[in-house]
Amino acid sequence: MANEIVVYCIETGEFQTITLETTRTFAANPYVAWLKFIKSVIVGESLYMLPRSYPAIIEMDLITHQLTYHTQWLSDIQGKTVNRDALFWTDCVLKDSQLILPSAIANVVFSFDTITKKFSVIYSGNQPVCYSGISEIQDGILLSERNSGRLKLLDLSRNRLIPYEKMPEGFRAHEIIGYLDFLQIEDNIFAIPWWGNMLLQIVPATGEILPVKNYDEERGENKDVAVRRAWVYNGKMYCMNNFTGEIDVFQQNGAFEKSFAVTVSENFTHNMEKNMIHNKTQMFAESNIFPLKGYLSYILNNGAEDVKQGQYF
User: Fold this and answer.
1) Picking from 6-20, 174-188, 212-226, 260-274, which range would have the lowest pLDDT averaged per residue?
2) Residue 26 reports pLDDT greater than 60
3) Is the pLDDT of residue 56 over 50?
4) Rounded to an integer, what distance in angstroms lies between the CA atom of residue 143 and that of residue 88?
5) Are the CB atoms for 212 and 198 separated by under 8 Å?
6) DSSP H or E stretch at residue 4
7) What pLDDT, on a 0 to 100 scale, did the predictor assign at position 303?
8) What dihedral angle (degrees, nearest 10) is formed by the CA atoms of 41, 43, 45, 48?
9) Longest Cα–Cα distance in the chain
10) Of 289, 283, 285, the residue nearest 271 (C-alpha)
């Protein structure tokens, strides 16, 4: 259940394991052993692991591999929790030496100084909301409310949170997380929907929020997320459409370009199926059938033969 951190040395080709401390459950958020962390970020010579359910932000020194457990922030959300399934979601913003961390469990935004190693509360509100997506823009920090998906602007000069702009007509969030992430291409920011029904284009220069795609047109009776993953490559945005099973490609101005299907190597799929059958509670866990070293060997040595145009691991 992921009780260790695995470090792979590129120079020696060897793995090293670092054992995590036994967790002490934070009462307001259930501990889930296979969902410990949600995101990691490197600042200088330290790696910071942001928790999904593990009750600490872990800092690992990339030189010595020493672990430091930061828990001061837990006291700042005691008695303020709204949800009970995640401490943080997906991302943070690095501004100068500060990590800006929006809570996914309480109406609190933290700042962590990576030099002094101290936390401070930038914003704390009384309304029963919390946050998922975060992005830095010229006027401050852009946040998306976790449940409603609505966008807010955090003014760092006054530590004030205000509505960003009016959401497009017809916008709605079907379930608990409207927007998971923000992606930036040139001067545009795109809000990537999970249960939000629209892919949105945010234009900081004008303050506009524009609908790029309405996923309700393809959702039907499907109650799952709209976009499973999205990324930027060569100035274009790629979104894994969870309803069509295809990847949608958008230009930097938000214009739709094309969609294409993804096929997976039969050999890779066969190994994954065996792993899932033997590890029903850990769908993609390391196992005797699918060990981490064997997987790396497969990718580096044998996998190259399976990669053809239109095929991905």
Assistant:
1) 260-274
2) yes
3) yes
4) 13
5) yes
6) strand 4-9
7) 43
8) -40
9) 56
10) 289
Q: Which two tokens stand for residue 116?
A: 């002094």
Task: Specify the residue for token string 């928790």.
Answer: 51
Q: What is the DSSP letter of 106?
A: B
How confident is the model at residue 312, as a pLDDT?
35
pLDDT of residue 288: 47
- Compute the distance between CA of residue 28 and CA of residue 193 in angstroms, rounded to an integer: 27
**Cα 254 from chain centroid?**
22
Residue 69 has pLDDT above 80, yes or no: yes
DSSP class of 306? G
Is the pLDDT assigned to residue 4 strictly greater than 90? no
Q: Tokens 């823009």 sit at which residue?
A: 137
More confident residue, 78 or 64: 64
Question: Rounded to 5 degrees, what are φ and ψ at 216?
Answer: -65, -25
User: Do the strands 263-264 and 311-312 form a parallel or antiparallel pair, or are they unpaired?
Assistant: parallel
DSSP string, 272-293: HHHHHHH-TTSTT---SSS-HH
Average pLDDT, the chain: 84
Report the C-alpha gap between 285 and 280 in whole angstroms: 9
User: DSSP per residue over 41-103, as a string?
Assistant: EEETTEEEEEESSSSSEEEEETTT--EEEE-TTHHHHTT-B--SS-S--S--EEETTEEEEE-
Residue 147: the pLDDT is 87
Report the alpha-carbon distance of residue 287 to residue 273 in Å, rounded. Answer: 12
